[in-house]
Design brief:
About 30% of the residues are buried. By secondary structure, the chain is α+β, with helices and mostly antiparallel strands. About 30% of the residues lie in helices and about 25% in strands. It is elongated. It has two domains: about 150 residues, 3-Layer(aba) Sandwich (Rossmann fold), CATH 3.40.50; about 260 residues, Isoleucyl-tRNA Synthetase, domain 2 (Alpha-Beta Complex). This is isoleucine--tRNA ligase. Belongs to the class-I aminoacyl-tRNA synthetase family. IleS type 1 subfamily. It catalyses: tRNA(Ile) + L-isoleucine + ATP = L-isoleucyl-tRNA(Ile) + AMP + diphosphate. Its EC number is 6.1.1.5.
């Protein structure tokens, strides 16, 4: 009878090391156990390394407004790698983690919680709203701290710094007082990105770019002293191009490239000033047909020409502007920012609605005039037909998947005023890349707002 052979187990033929490591990682169970073993490690290291060369890494704080994400993990792990490297070099490390407990990211989360309960932020006392924000931030500080500890980050977790700690706030006030005493703090107006739906300024890094449809218009401004160019000229207009008609009430100047060539071209009984390099493109886009070039001059020759605004007057604006601005406004100025890639080579300049425009204003005595409030509505500083109109109106949900701008009452009415005053050369809609708020996904505007600044160009004196 044939013997029955035993089935060969191939794993028994392998020469593998034998260890006590479990076959499964079981990370959800093991991670808390490992974190428990590491408790107090930072304190022990500090005791052992006392007196050694000190390595200090300052922690830029995350917002206490939600669970940690991959960005938080990357930030903390990279810092931890640096600290542990310095630790292995024999140094005493000092790493105090912190949290930013103030600002719009936290306020928006609390405001959304109130909305879910049918409560408006404006319906509760400010002190109560601040208390709720403090409570909300405190909750997420603890949640984030536990998660960072689970990542194995070595830090002084038992005493982090919090921007809402009264001691921290008191130190900030004292330091601000010292800066004031040195005379380097001042209050001024400067254009910044502004979200009219979140009603807050935004840093450039907080802005996202998405496609948006806007009116593209060419506008003519009547030149009041064309005889400076030639005694025979009449009906002369400087032509500008813009995709933000709503900024025209804040127009205080037109800028040109002083070294570029400009032509005065006669079209349909009017003499229009445009850059020579852009003339063909301008005539094609506006559908004006052929024109007769009467004169060619350098941009510097146009500097100093005065013009009339299509619907604003100095008499109306002098009530809201400084005398120096009224004296210097509605003139053509030179600017290194003017390029010849699009438009006409003559740029509508509103110092309250753009950084480059602001720089021109500072140079030539034009204040940053921005007659739009924090919710995007025209103020009393514009002519009556425009007052109370909003730059943009929204519809739908404000998120990436379902958001759209349906109309701009301000753009619409400004264009109507241009037509009524025979100042609109042409109009068409274009789609272009436009800055949007990273929080609510709404389009932002450039708007000058009063702010406190620290003068970086002044020497520090003890």
């Amino acid at each position: 009878m044939e013997e029955k052979k035993e089935k060969l187990d191939l794993k028994n033929t392998l020469n593998l090391p034998r260890t006590d490591f479990p076959m499964k990682a079981n990370l959800p169970q093991r991670e808390p156990q490992i974190a428990k073993q590491w408790e107090g490690l930072y304190k022990k290291i500090k005791e052992i390394r006392k007196g050694k060369p000190l390595w200090v890494l300052h922690d830029g704080p995350p917002y206490a407004n939600g669970a940690i994400h991959i960005g938080h993990a990357l930030n903390k792990i990279l810092k931890d790698i640096i600290n542990k490297y310095e630790l292995m070099q024999g140094k005493d490390i000092d790493y105090v983690p912190g949290w930013d407990c103030h600002g719009l990211p936290i306020e928006l989360k609390v405001e959304n919680q109130l909305k879910e309960k049918g409560i408006s932020k404006e319906d509760i006392p400010k002190a109560e709203f601040r208390r709720m924000c403090r409570e909300y931030a405190g909750h997420w500080v603890n949640v984030q701290k536990e998660d960072f500890i689970r990542l194995g980050i070595l830090a002084k977790w038992d005493s982090p710094y919090l921007t809402m700690d009264p001691k921290y706030q008191a130190t900030e006030v004292r330091e601000l007082g010292r800066i004031f005493e040195r005379g380097i703090v001042y209050r001024g107006k400067k254009p910044v990105y502004w979200c009219m739906f979140c009603t807050t300024a935004e840093a450039e890094a907080e802005v996202e770019y998405s496609e948006k449809k806007d009116p593209s218009i060419y506008v003519k401004f009547k030149i009041n002293n064309p005889e400076r160019l030639s005694a025979s000229l009449e009906n002369v207009y400087a032509v500008i191009w813009t995709t933000t008609p709503w900024t025209l009430p804040a127009n205080l100047a037109i800028t040109v490239n002083p070294s570029a060539l400009y032509v005065l071209v006669k079209v349909k009984g009017e003499t229009l000033i445009v850059a020579k390099e852009l003339l063909k493109q301008f005539l094609e886009e506006t559908g004006l047909g052929q024109g007769e070039v009467l004169l060619t001059v350098k941009g510097q020759k146009l500097v100093g020409l005065e013009y009339s605004h299509p619907f604003n007057t100095k008499e109306f604006l002098k009530e809201f502007l400084k005398p120096q601005t009224v004296e210097n406004m509605f003139k053509i100025y030179p600017s290194e920012f003017v390029t010849l890639d699009t438009g006409t080579g003559l740029v509508h300049t509103a110092p309250g609605h753009g950084n480059e425009d602001y720089a021109v204003g500072v140079k030539f005595g034009l204040e940053p005039f921005a007659p739009v409030d924090d919710k995007g509505f025209y103020t009393h500083e514009v002519i009556p037909p425009l007052r109370g109109l909003r730059v943009f109106e929204e519809t739908g949900r404000r998120n990436k998947e379902n958001y759209q701008i349906v109309r701009s009452p301000a753009n619409y009415r400004v264009i109507e005023l241009l037509k009524e005053n025979n100042a609109l050369v042409s109009l068409k809609d274009i789609k272009h890349s436009y800055p949007h708020c990273w929080r609510c996904k709404s389009p932002v505007i450039f708007r000058a707002t009063p702010q406190w600044f620290v003068a970086m160009d002044k020497p520090l004196e003890d």
